[in-house]
Structures are given as C-alpha cells and as structure tokens.
TrEMBL record:
Name of this protein: Peptidase M23
Family indicated by similarity: Belongs to the LECT2/MIM-1 family.
Organism: Desmophyllum pertusum
Keyword match Disulfide bond: yes
InterPro entries in UniProt: Dup_hybrid_motif (IPR011055), LECT2 (IPR008663), M23ase_b-sheet_dom (IPR016047)
Keyword match Disulfide bond: yes
Signal peptide positions (record): 1-22
Span of domain M23ase beta-sheet core: 67-172
UniProt KW keywords: Disulfide bond, Metal-binding, Signal, Zinc
Length: 178
C-alpha cells in the first residue's frame, strides 16, 4: 500500500513538473520506434488528416481538378499554434499560390536534421514566426494557423504538409502516425 502511495506521489510530481517546466506544452507524449511526425497542430493531437468536405479530401493523391494533391492536409483550427513535425532548420517562407494576397497564402519550408536529414517539408496556410536558419527541435513552435476557409465555406481548416525525400515529393501519410 505504501509503495503505491509513493508511486502515485512520484507520478504526480512528474506530471506536475511537465506542466510547470513546459516540457511538453502541446505534444502527444507519444513514444514509438516508427518514424512519425510530432504533433503538427495544437488543436489536433493525433495529426488527423482532413476527410472529405465540399472542396475534396485531404488525402495524398486526392483530386484537385486536373491535378493531384501532393501532400496531406492536417486538420487545424484557425489561430492554433503549429509545430515542426521533425527536427529541422528553417529554410524560408513557402507561398502556395501566385497573385493571391489572402492571409492564408503563406507557409514555411523546413529542412530535416538528425535522423530526418534528407527530408524537407512545406507547410502551407501557416504564418511563419521563426527566422530563416533557425534550428528547431521536433515539436517546437513555427507559427500560427490561418483561416484557410475564409473564401471557402465548408472547407475543413488545415495545414497542407508536403514532404520531400532527397528532393522528390513523397507520400507523407505513413508519417502522420502515433
Ligand atoms: Zn493540401
């Protein structure tokens, strides 16, 4: 009985210090050997991918008129904090569309480091809040989610995540794991 009491107190202290010291402000707390993205959006702890809505699906390869969707869309409510999916260096801004002055037409381009060397990711509809060249750990803050739906009623708000491996676009779906 005493043991359980001590264990409970120790666990409580650990949980409390995580809150106090901000070890994980908004992370999933996942531990796995699979190569997974860290939590990308504060409002979406499971990296849930946008399903079907009035404008299509957020799946990789989904139809976009004559084109195919070259990334995955991670559900994210407007104003949410957005995080680096893996350890990375900030390359630059990445703008999705030409001749579009909407606030959502913004994004960030990251280059993986450590075990993610060789990977790059474009994350669109995010207001970039970190300077070029900054070194980021996985899950660290990179910017805030815009309202992508402002001219698209019925669309699920989302971060577009476009992954490259050795400069070639790859399907990121298996990395949106737990
Ligand atoms: Zn997309």
């Amino acid at each position: 009985m005493k043991f359980f009491l001590v264990a409970a107190v120790v666990l409580g202290v650990i949980a409390l210090s995580q809150e106090v010291f901000g070890w994980r402000e908004c992370g999933s707390g996942r531990s796995s050997r699979k190569k997974c993205f860290e939590q990308i959006c504060c409002s979406n702890p499971s990296n849930q991918i946008r399903g079907w809505d009035a404008y299509g699906s957020g799946a990789y390869g989904a139809s976009r008129g004559s084109r195919k969707h070259r990334g995955i869309d991670i559900v994210c409510s407007a104003g949410s904090s957005v995080y680096a999916p893996f350890p990375a260096t900030v390359l630059r801004r990445s703008i999705p569309y030409r001749n579009n002055n909407a606030a959502y037409n913004n994004g960030i381009y990251l280059q993986g480091t450590g075990s993610w060397a060789g990977y790059r990711v474009k994350m669109w509809y995010v207001t970039k809040q970190v300077r070029n060249g900054k070194k980021l750990s996985a899950g660290s803050y990179i910017g805030s989610m815009t309202d992508r739906t402002i001219h698209a009623r019925g669309m699920t708000n989302h971060v577009h995540v476009q992954l490259e491996k050795n400069r070639t676009i790859v399907n990121p779906t298996s990395y949106a794991c737990q």
